[in-house]
Amino acid sequence: MSDHPFINEPVLVARAKILKRLVWVLTVVVLSLVVAMRSEYKFTQPLEVEAYLKMLPGVVALINTIVAACLLGGLWCIVRKQYRAHQRCMTAALLLSTVFLVCYVLYHFTMPETKFGDIDGNSEIDAAEANAVGGLRALYLLILITHIVAAAVSFPMILMSFVHAWTRDFVKHKKLARRVFPLWLYVAVTGPICYWMLKPYYLP
């Protein structure tokens, strides 16, 4: 049996304005962190901490997998008009994505970059390594680049769709959610794919 739909209330204009401003502030902060973590500067940490940090790529891949499941669950619930269940699935997806982001930034600020095809782990791809992986490297880079672009584009849209839902502006929420859902799902699915393709090249 379907849940009762949310009672539509007048949009909370003041709260919506504050939340929308917060969305753009968070977007600038997060994108700045992603750019900064690509720099050569890395934080140092004790060896025992480093051992835990090396586990993070697997953790974030698992989180992304669960996010994808939550998104599909949310889609299933909204199609069946189970609004409360849809809300729980999408909120879980947002919270897990937040945990993913923290782990992702933490890892890339503390550990050296792993490159696809870098068999000897020297952070360079020589001719022999490039020949060994062949076209797989191009495929990996295609998936990775589209994953990053989709993540950057969808991030403010995801937050804004939640703002519309929280402020009971369901017309805008529905319109924006239809656009951002495929992007969010693509990010959640391609994240684990990138991890499994890159996994053989992580340093022990």
Structural features, described:
The chain is mostly helical and 204 residues long. The protein has one domain (20-35, 51-201). The chain has helices spanning 13-36, 47-53, 56-79, 83-110, 127-133, 135-166, 170-198. The model is unreliable at 1-8 (pLDDT under 50).
- What helical percentage do the residues reach? over 70%
Please give the count of helices: 7
**SSE run:** HHHHHHH
Rg to the nearest angstrom?
A: 20 Å
Query: Largest sheet at a glance?
Result: none
Q: What is the average per-residue confidence, as pLDDT, rounded to a whole number?
A: 85
Distance between the termini: 51 Å
The count of strands amounts to: 0
Assembly state of the chains shown: single chain
Outline the low-pLDDT stretches.
1-8
Shape: elongated
Strand content: under 5%
Structural class: mainly alpha
Count of the domains: 1
Task: Please outline what is shown here.
The protein is mainly α and 204 residues long. The chain has 7 helices and no strands. The protein has one domain.
Structural topology:
Elements: H1 13-36, H2 47-53, H3 56-79, H4 83-110, H5 127-133, H6 135-166, H7 170-198
Please tag this protein with its features.
204 residues, mainly alpha, 7 helices, 0% strand, disordered N terminus
